[in-house]
Amino acid sequence: MTPAPDGTPCWVPDDGGPALSPLPAVTGETGADVTVVGAGLAGLSTAYHLAHRAPGLHIAVVDAGHPGAGASGRGTGLLGPRAGPAVDVAVRRYGPATARRMYQASLRAVADVLDLCDRLGVRRGVRPGEQLVATRSPGGLIALTRQADAYRALGLDVPVLTRTALRRRLEPPYTAALLYRDAATLDPAALTRALATACAAKGVHLYGASPLREVRAGRPGGTRLVFPHGTVRTGQAVLAVGAAAAAGAPVGTVLPLQVYAIATAPLPPAARKALGGGALSVVDAMPLAPYFRLLPDGGLVAGGGTVTHLPDPDARHADRARGRAWAWLAGWVRGLHPELAGVPVTHRWAGRIGHTLDGLPVVGPVPGRPGVWYVGGCCGHGLAMSVAHGAHLAGELLGEGCPEPGGPLPWHRSRAPRLPLPAPARPLLRAALATAGRAARRNC
């Protein structure tokens, strides 16, 4: 089997061709009632729910590339509950009642994604299963113990698996794990493409190859979105651009972090059985540490272990960073089971996530820009939560208010904490991330 070119996710069709017909760019001047900038899961979910609930609305979705070109098409397909910081941290910051609501919202998000896949006919790779947050290190065990105590105090069903119970599920020598029963794995690019197709079928106007240049205040009740070859006059705008705080929108600091993944050829049967044999996904409890899951074709996807801050992914050091991250991941995967030593890596890719200092997304109106909303900063939990954020924003844009039981959650806000990042400080940030990555790799 010939390895795919570096940078190709395993979700790309085998023929290498586009999954969707090329989209027209924004040219000249056009108008819309609502314009969504960003054709990832959050943006397309917003447009989909808007079109479903208000069929007469003129909706446009504009992407710098094409649907799923960013993080939504480059994830690793782990669909699990949890959003924001660890549950014990959430209890300390926001109180038990809010921490419980945060977790319950993440559970609903998983169920909603699976329901959406069913409605859109997304079958490829969708497999309900379990997710383990596991550890082999003393530090990870301490973190899991704190989280288990918090889940128990909140009355939430997240049991602890001891070493003996873990051995019934997989062979790698993890010492303990939290078991999340309501999880799944899927092909994230297939879901993104299906959402784009469904939006088009509902009359949403889709544009590609149009990076946003500027957001200008228009006439009362309107905004002008400026693209390289045209503008869109819009009543309301949603900036669903992930780690890119579009056109300098004052939404606090959403760090663009580069994360890395690999996929392998099909595993030998013994190795596949040893690693769970199905839709099980395993995430290490240490921050930044690696994780893996099995694919329906018998291969394995792994990610984590390294994260870098690369404002310009084409910077001189980017190639070296990618090479080191992929090489370490490949070695880690081969250490999971003896029979993996000869299994080739077929895909290696990188993608960006948006990370905030407090671990919470930003889903709210942009300060000082009436009618403009921002969604981003899912901190690595974007597969389920991005879809949920889209449904939430659709309700807000239609004047229906917050649909969450009990009212807004902590991520329904206009700003993340700010971290000034002048150019001289960026090497310090990179050094801190490198140190954290080394600690995670030593303890996995």
Automatic annotation (TrEMBL):
<protein>
    <submittedName>
        <fullName>Putative oxidoreductase</fullName>
    </submittedName>
</protein>
<dbReference type="GO" id="GO:0005737">
    <property type="term" value="C:cytoplasm"/>
</dbReference>
<dbReference type="InterPro" id="IPR036188">
    <property type="entry name" value="FAD/NAD-bd_sf"/>
</dbReference>
<dbReference type="InterPro" id="IPR006076">
    <property type="entry name" value="FAD-dep_OxRdtase"/>
</dbReference>
<dbReference type="Pfam" id="PF01266">
    <property type="entry name" value="DAO"/>
</dbReference>
<feature type="domain" description="FAD dependent oxidoreductase">
    <location>
        <begin position="33"/>
        <end position="394"/>
    </location>
</feature>
